[in-house]
Amino acid sequence: xxxxxxxxxxxxxxxxxxxxxxxxxxxxxxxxxxxxxxxxxxxxxxxxxxxxxxxxxxxxxxxxxxxxxxxxxxxxxxxxxxxxxxxxxxxxxxxxxxxxxxxxxxxxxxxxxxxxxxxxxxxxxxx
Length: 127
Fold this sequence. Notes:
Elements: H1 3-26, E1 30-32, H2 34-43, E2 46-50, H3 54-58, E3 66-67, H4 73-76, E4 87-91, H5 96-107, E5 112-115, H6 118-126
Parallel strand pairs: 1-5, 2-3, 2-4, 4-5
């Protein structure tokens, strides 16, 4: 086996590892469709958390959403303690970052979920 083949297999193994890790981290996260989330909002008891960048948030967000970018979530999770009795539903542009954010919050002891399809899907259905 040549050095280039070893490097190629190592890169491939790393990519597989990343996808398997993401799957394992997010499989326990509740995922709401936009219509399910609309029902949950009507019922009350949920907090909307926008995990997109500041630029994305300023370009438009869901009414009443709290903004903490996903990369700042671990450091700023204490800001959510006052909402500890409510389910925190994370959303991003398409649903990928919000899954990671919700998984991170669950690890920290919060009740967290994610919006499938993100704000893009939400806006398509509810704007």
